Amino acid sequence: MADYKHILLPTDGSxxxxxxxxxxxxxxxxxxxxxxxxxxxxxxxxxxxxxxGGEALAYYLDAAEEAAAQGIAQAGAxxxxxxxxxxxxxxxxxxxxxxxxxxxxxxxxxxxxxxxHGRRGLDSLLLGSVAHKVLTLAKVxxxxxx
Length: 146
Prior knowledge:
This protein is an alpha/beta fold. Helix content is 46%, strand content 19%. The chain contains four helices and five strands; from the N terminus they run βαβαβαβαβ.
C-alpha cells in the first residue's frame, strides 16, 4: 500500500471539488500527509478583446479571484475541522490542468485528489476536461472523486 506524504487538492469550489476535499482531507489525516490546496485562474481567458473588453476582463478576474478564494476557504474549513494543516495558493496561469501537474511536480506531490467535474461549462460535459487532462499528464497517481 502506498504511503502518501504530500497530497494536492485542486479546487474550484464546485460540489465535485467539495467531495474531493472530503477525500483528500481524510487521506491526509490518515497518512499524516501535507495537504496543499490550489485553485487555478486563467489570467487571459479570451483570445481577443472587443473594444471595451478591458471591463469584461476586469469583471472576469474579480469573479475568478472571488471563486478561487471561496473554493480554497471551503476546502480549508474542512481540513481545519478535521485537524489537518494545509497550505493554499491561487495559481494564475493559463491552462488549469498543466498548472496542477506542474505544481505537483515542482512541489513534490505524490497524490492528486480532484473532483470529476468542475465549473467549466461545456468542458464538464465529458469527464471534466481538466480532470481528464490531469489524468493524462500527471506523473503521480490521481484519484478522481465523483
